[in-house]
Design a protein that fits this description.
mainly alpha, two-stranded antiparallel sheet, 4% strand
């Protein structure tokens, strides 16, 4: 049994248990409003998934989905939909691996991964040499594409997962090209792997976290201390911090600013120290230590690189 079939079976079993419970309470509604379900399915279609794919991955009959979306002459699209079908459709959103190779999908995740790789010094041509699909010209434009094929998106994702913690030089990129690529990324203010959460990099609504504290005043000072261009969220947070202290005297406000800046300067060094202690004493790996410390794996690894362990003389 495939993973998709197992997921459908488990979802149906959960729904059957819920249905029996609601019937017992006298609260069972066999039909619900079709409008929000239709909007959700249309959004899935817009992401690049066809009706056949939606039916196969939700267990909802294709005819039911067609009737929901289009109706059938002379009947208009469905006004109501079976409650169990609504639940199955509303709980589904495609993962990258669900799409057919040729499906054209949102390019947000691919664009961000290519930009992040450039921030490490890997130019698109070097990524193409490793991925070996399509042509170099296609990869030159992936840092700005709004749409890509699912095949390309998967290839870039898989390479990014193994390359995001390595250096460009490890992939045969000369130091000169790597430096020019990093400068190109910095000029465009592209976020590196350390700024992205692997679970959120594909979400267009998610913003990069350059410092581990972006969106806070600490993030603002961490930007300044690490000489990273300050992002908009941190600019806004610092402006709010200052506004909240507008009534303080100049001396007290300056004292608090200096204290906030000092805290940010020590935070990353402390993070690296705490992570090494955790891994040494508890035997945790990078992923586990990052979760324990409340940061992303990429941010932790960058902290460890920027603050190497002192070697006793």
């Amino acid at each position: 049994m495939t993973t998709t079939e197992e997921a459908i079976r488990d979802a149906k079993n959960r729904w059957a248990r819920r249905r029996r419970r609601l019937i017992g309470y006298g609260q069972w509604q066999p039909f619900v409003d079709a409008a929000p379900v239709r909007q959700h399915v249309l959004a899935i279609q817009a992401s690049g998934m066809g009706v056949a794919g939606i039916a196969a991955r939700t267990g909802v009959n294709r005819g039911s989905i067609d009737h929901l979306l289009y109706g059938s002459a002379p009947c208009p699209p469905a006004v109501q939909i079976r409650t169990e079908n609504a639940a199955a459709l509303l709980s589904y959103w495609p993962t990258l691996d669900d799409y057919e190779d040729r499906s054209v999908i949102d390019g947000t995740g691919t664009r961000r991964r290519m930009q992040a790789l450039a921030a490490t010094g890997l130019p698109p041509k070097a990524v193409h040499r490793q991925v070996r699909i399509g042509n170099p010209q296609t990869f030159e434009h992936l840092t700005s594409r709004s749409k890509v094929t699912a095949r390309t998106a998967r290839a870039v994702r898989d390479f990014y997962n193994q390359a995001s913690t390595k250096t460009a030089e490890q992939y045969g990129v000369t130091p000169g090209i790597a430096t020019r690529t990093r400068n190109w990324a910095a000029k465009n203010r592209w976020a590196g792997p350390e700024a992205w959460d692997d679970d959120l990099i594909d979400d267009p609504a998610h913003a990069p976290d350059w410092t581990g504290h972006c969106g806070t005043d600490r993030g603002y000072w961490t930007h300044r201390w690490q000489k990273i261009p300050v992002c908009g969220r941190c600019e806004s947070a610092h402006a709010e911090w200052l506004a909240a202290r507008a009534d303080l005297g100049v001396r007290e406000r300056t004292r608090q600013q200096l204290a906030a800046r000092a805290a940010a300067a020590h935070r990353e060094a402390d993070l690296a120290h705490d992570a090494r202690e955790l891994m040494r004493v508890s035997g945790l790996d990078y992923e586990q230590a990052a979760e324990r410390l409340g940061v992303t794996r990429q941010h932790l690894q960058q902290a460890l690189v920027r603050h190497p362990e002192a070697v006793a003389a």
